[in-house]
Amino acid sequence: MSAWVLTFFLVEFSIAAEPKLTILPILLLSSVVIIGLELGYILAYRNGWAMKSASVTANITLAVALIFVAMIFYKKKITAKQIAGIILCGGGLVLINI
């Protein structure tokens, strides 16, 4: 967190060049996402999920979601390798929750 704050001040108050994009919204959004993930782990454990499956399920879901975020916001093309990965992740989720 302190590295993010230091980066913000270095970029925001740089004398050498005026940055086109301030990094503050990115830092705030990433902080909210990290806090949300950790809160999700805590709530999952409190609701009785096994420790071995809750974090794996969350990480698989996040990885698959990031593929779609890249497609929508960054206009990336989905490859056959990524489709195979999504299918394997789905199969893993099914096997974990049996």
Spell the H/E element sequence: HHHH
Number of domains: 2
- Count of DSSP-assigned helices: 4
Major sheet description: none
Span of the ends, CA to CA? 38 Å
Q: Could you tell me the strand content as a percent range?
A: under 5%
Low-confidence stretches: none
Number of strands: 0
Categorize the overall geometry: flat
Round the mean pLDDT to the nearest integer and report it.
78
The level of helicity is: over 70%
> SS-based structural class?
mainly alpha
Radius of gyration, taken over Cα atoms and rounded to an integer in Å: 18 Å
In short:
The protein has 98 residues and is mainly alpha-helical. Helices cover 76% and strands 0% of the residues. The chain has two domains: 1-48; 50-98.
Describe this structure in words.
- The chain has 98 residues and is mostly helical.
- It has two domains: 1-48; 50-98.
- It has four helices and no strands.
- The chain has helices at 2-12, 24-46, 51-73, 80-96.
- The chain is flat, with a radius of gyration of 18 Å.
- The mean pLDDT is 78.
SSE map:
Elements: H1 2-12, H2 24-46, H3 51-73, H4 80-96
Features:
98 residues; 0% strand; 4 helices; mainly alpha; 2 domains; flat
